[in-house]
Design goal:
The chain has 340 residues and is α/β, with parallel strands linked by helices. It has 2 domains: 178 residues, Metallo-beta-lactamase, Chain A; 128 residues, Rossmann fold. The protein has 8 helices and 18 strands. The strands form 3 sheets. The chain has a 7-stranded mixed β-sheet, with helices on one face. Strands 1-2-3-4-5-6 form a 6-stranded mixed β-sheet, with no helix packed on it.
């Protein structure tokens, strides 16, 4: 009997009677991270990492939450449940489930590069690994974060020298804080959309070092905007909110920018390939590090990834889920038409 199975409500551990990232209301929901496709309203109790709790309260309101530190073991009906760093966004976790020597790990979303904001990914040895496959194609290879951030800084400096605002679209939870933590704040003021600023406050309260930021109404003249880096969710593109900034150059920070056609379709001036998901080599490295004999792939390029793993002797299968449809006003969603 499989320890975790897919049901019409989400991934379910019958032995421990809990769901992982359910997409319908359940009694006990173990949450890997706070993005809207993994943490949905209506469950009776939410179990998550302590840094995810304020994110859930911001998004879901006054819900019942139980928290755990990374590595802390919770026991329910003989099942050992623990959370381990996924490196995706603040508080993100892989869920390790063990019972009578059988160990399963549900990864949620993850990336291998340490972004300096979320706790760095820690592979967990297991028999069965449930992996995301958002960028599960060989074309996706990420450059080092420092290199991408240097390109963002250079673009911002060039715009500031010309008196032109720099509007960078980035998801409010995760990507925005990652950019903020590493850009050169000496270039000019940093303005954040309200959807981003709320998550900035949560990150700062969790101990993440971010430079000072302002909202648009706290700025003065359009000349001051001309030196600014303005962070906004992708949903703000072409909205009236942008009119106050005068002349601006716009860009998107996303793994989907690896494909040039995505940038052209969005009519962007620039695209920075920066993703909070693992690239193709990252997925393969993570899977290998688990030592898993069986692999289930969810949301993304499931077919190519499972076929590749099967050709290399692994028992790899697709696992149907309802992940990957996030609201980019607050979190963003991994689809080629939006960004991740």
């Amino acid at each position: 009997m499989d320890l975790i199975v897919a049901t019409d409500r989400g991934l379910y551990c019958a032995t421990g009677d809990f769901h992982i990232d359910p997409w319908r209301p359940v009694a006990r929901a173990v949450i890997t991270h706070g993005h809207s496709d993994h943490a949905r309203f209506g469950s009776e109790v939410y179990i998550c990492h302590r840094d995810t709790a304020p994110i859930l309260r911001k998004r879901l309101g006054d819900v019942a939450i139980e928290t755990a530190a990374y590595g802390e073991v919770l026991t329910r009906e003989g099942v050992e449940l623990s959370l381990h760093p996924a490196g995706h966004v603040l508080g993100s976790a892989q869920v390790r489930v063990a019972h009578r020597g059988d160990v399963w790990v549900a990864s949620g979303d993850y990336k291998l590069e340490n972004d300096g904001v979320s706790a760095a990914f820690e592979p967990q040895r297991c028999h069965v690994f449930i992996t995301e496959s958002t960028f599960g194609l060989p074309i996706y290879h990420w450059r080092p974060q420092a290199e991408i951030i240097a390109s963002v800084d250079a673009w911002w400096r060039e715009n500031a020298a010309a008196g032109r605002a720099s509007v960078l679209y980035a998801y409010a939870l995760g990507k925005a804080q990652r950019v903020l933590a590493h850009v050169d704040a000496a270039i000019g003021p940093i303005v954040c959309h309200g959807a981003i600023e709320g998550f900035n406050a949560i990150a700062r309260a969790a101990g993440v070092a971010l430079p000072p930021t302002r909202i648009a109404s706290e700025m003065g003249t359009k000349a001051e905007f001309g030196r600014a880096l303005i962070l906004a969710p992708p949903s703000a593109a072409s909205s009236p909110w942008l009119n106050r900034f005068g002349d601006y150059s716009d860009a998107l920070a996303s793994g989907w920018m690896q494909v040039r056609g995505n940038r052209r379709r969005r009519s962007l001036d620039r695209g920075f390939v920066l993703s909070d998901h693992a690239d193709w080599p990252g997925l393969l490295a993570a899977i290998e590090a688990t030592g898993a004999e069986r692999v289930f792939a969810t949301h993304g390029s499931v077919g190519p990834l499972t076929r590749y793993l099967q050709e290399r002797g692994l028992d790899a299968q697709a696992l149907a889920t309802a992940y990957g449809e996030e609201d980019d006003t607050a979190e963003g969603g991994p689809s080629p038409e939006s960004a991740a």
